[in-house]
Design goal:
CATH architecture: 3-Layer(aba) Sandwich
Order of helices and strands: EEEHEHEHHEEHH
Helix content: 25-40%
CATH superfamily: Uracil-DNA glycosylase-like domain
Number of helices: 6
Distance between the termini: 37 Å
CATH topology: Uracil-DNA Glycosylase, subunit E
Length: 196
């Protein structure tokens, strides 16, 4: 059966963050992008930055990153309602910028999201997200995958590939789904332990 991606509803940035000027990205962004998917989901998936969600005429579309992400979520037998996607940076970069300064400027927004959403599991998608959140600037993805970490002051976290890397290298797909399956198993175990 062919996989058909969907446009996951975007959660608008809070009014107090929608006109953020904390870093230089405010000068070349179209808007602040807060997140997408189910806002109260148990699994928070973290990407480095937003991609294009609309074409030049304003019509929403699903980019390659979201296609791979949605497909893996489905193949891991997670529900769409289980996942919320957000970003280290809340603006889409369109040219070179000071990456450490932008991440530092946006870190407060991400901390606020974590505090409000209280995810049960975090999926760190790609090396940038993993190195930043785990404070391991020299780590390699291969050293971080396939084991649980603690992020955001106590949230169990898995590191996996960036969906776009999987799109470019299809041989990674099975491992990518396997990481999501580990998250699904842990989430199910957490739910069952709450029932007993």
């Amino acid at each position: 059966m062919e996989f058909i991606p969907e446009i996951w509803e975007e959660e608008p940035a809070p009014a107090y963050a929608a006109d953020c000027r904390r870093c230089e990205l405010s000068k070349h962004r179209a808007r602040v992008v807060w997140g997408e998917g189910e806002p109260n989901a148990s699994v928070l998936a973290l990407l480095d930055n937003p991609g294009a969600r609309e074409d030049k005429t304003g019509n929403a579309f699903v980019c390659a990153t979201r296609v791979m992400l949605q497909r893996a979520v489905k193949d891991a037998r997670l529900e769409r309602s289980d996942v919320y996607v957000t970003y280290l940076l809340k603006c889409r970069p369109i040219r070179a910028y000071d990456k450490p300064a932008a991440r530092d400027a946006c870190s407060g927004w991400l901390s606020e999201q974590i505090e409000l959403k209280k995810p049960r599991i975090a999926m760190l998608l790609g090396l940038t997200a993993a190195q930043t959140v785990l404070s391991l600037p020299d780590a390699q993805l291969s050293d971080l995958r396939e084991r649980w970490h603690t992020a955001f002051g106590g949230v169990p976290a898995l590191v996996t590939y960036h969906p776009l890397a999987v799109r470019r290298r299809p041989n990674l797909y099975r491992s990518f789904v396997s990481d999501w399956e580990h998250a699904a198993v842990r989430l199910q175990s957490m739910r069952e332990s709450r029932l007993t």
